[in-house]
UniProtKB/TrEMBL annotation:
GO MF, one annotated term: metal ion binding
EC code: 3.5.3.11
Pathway where this protein functions: Amine and polyamine biosynthesis; putrescine biosynthesis via agmatine pathway; putrescine from agmatine: step 1/1
Biological process terms in GO annotation: putrescine biosynthetic process from arginine, via agmatine; spermidine biosynthetic process
Keyword Metal-binding: yes
Encoding gene (name): speB
Stated name of the protein: Agmatinase
Cofactor notes: Binds 2 manganese ions per subunit.
InterPro entries xrefs: Agmatinase-rel (IPR005925), Ureohydrolase (IPR006035), Ureohydrolase_dom_sf (IPR023696), Ureohydrolase_Mn_BS (IPR020855)
Catalytic reactions on record: agmatine + H2O = urea + putrescine
Cofactor(s) required, per the database record: Mn(2+)
Keywords, in A-Z order: Hydrolase, Manganese, Metal-binding, Polyamine biosynthesis, Putrescine biosynthesis, Spermidine biosynthesis
């Protein structure tokens, strides 16, 4: 795929017109083929772009403006409806191209399974990488109802690829007992319920390492983000998630790529979720790209 042909429509506010001159590439992965509850996250990337027009370009948290980061919105990867394996292959190939060009990849989902091919591409370039994972769910199942390609298995697959000790999950409040046992037995880090304070403790351990960050919007309490496929009460506030993004920005880790997934706009007529996601993307761009 040529990067200048990936999309023809709205772009995220202040997107740079040139892929070649960009430092980072924003792209959508509009897939919800394996969801276990409510579909609709394939519409997330488009709506996040559309509501970004209402954002201020300046972040008072980071004292930076979007024009200070050259990022190119490559649009949505044209994934084949209902075909998980081919979609995964296309995402991996796309991210391979972004990395080969020396760019920082920032993906928008889509269900969480879309992170799996990104992790595979990242691991080829950064074999010593770690993963920071913020989510309501463990996502450590080997399969869901007999299907190994599932948004419920993304972290299990990633941990088996890069090693469980290199995966750090935060905000977890839902999962099978067996999933928590597997994590404990294999040395994977799981922080239940909270994100910011346990993240502060872990970040010094990751100083200097390449780290990929994946954020499922359902780490937020449904009061803050009702527009998602698998809502789960008891989550963190949007203020805490923003503070966590900024804590990573201030740390000594080397963020090499990231994504934000599971925004399903249809379930939130107030558009609170899409607007929150758009602001989170802004802060990820301003806080992490210069660290890539």
């Amino acid at each position: 795929m040529r990067f200048d042909e990936a999309y023809s429509g709205n772009v995220f506010i202040k997107s740079h017109p040139s892929f070649e001159e960009s430092e980072a590439v924003l792209y959508g992965m509009p897939m919800d083929w394996t969801v276990s509850f409510r579909p609709g996250s394939r519409f997330g990337p488009t709506r996040i772009r559309e509501v970004s027009i209402g954002l201020e370009e300046y972040s008072p948290y980071l004292d930076r403006e979007l024009e200070e980061v050259k990022f190119y919105d490559a649009g949505d990867i044209p994934l084949p409806f209902g075909n998980p394996q081919r979609s995964i292959d296309m995402i991996e190939k796309f991210v391979d191209g972004v990395l080969d060009a020396g760019k920082f990849p920032l993906g928008m989902g889509g269900e969480h399974l879309v992170t799996w091919p990104v992790i595979k591409a990242m691991y080829k370039k950064y074999p010593d990488m770690a993963i920071i994972h913020m989510d309501a769910h463990t996502d450590l199942r080997e399969d869901y109802e007999g299907e190994p390609l599932s948004h419920a298995s993304i972290i299990r697959k990633s941990a088996e690829l890069i090693g469980p000790k290199n995966v750090y999950s935060f905000g977890i409040r839902s999962g099978l007992k067996e999933e928590f046992q597997w994590a404990k037995e294999n040395g994977m880090h799981i922080s239940k319920f909270e994100v910011l304070e346990p993240l502060k403790e872990v970040l010094p351990q990751l100083a200097g390492r390449p780290v990929y960050v994946t954020i499922d919007i359902d780490v937020l309490d449904p009061a803050h983000a009702p527009g998602t496929g698998t809502v789960d009460c008891g989550g963190i506030t949007s203020k805490e998630l923003l503070a966590s993004i900024h804590e990573i920005a201030r740390s000594e880790i080397n963020v090499v790529g990231c994504d934000l997934v599971e925004v399903a706009p249809i379930y939130d007529p107030s558009e609170q979720t899409a607007n929150t996601a758009s602001k989170l993307i802004r802060e990820m761009l301003l806080g992490w790209v210069q660290k890539g």
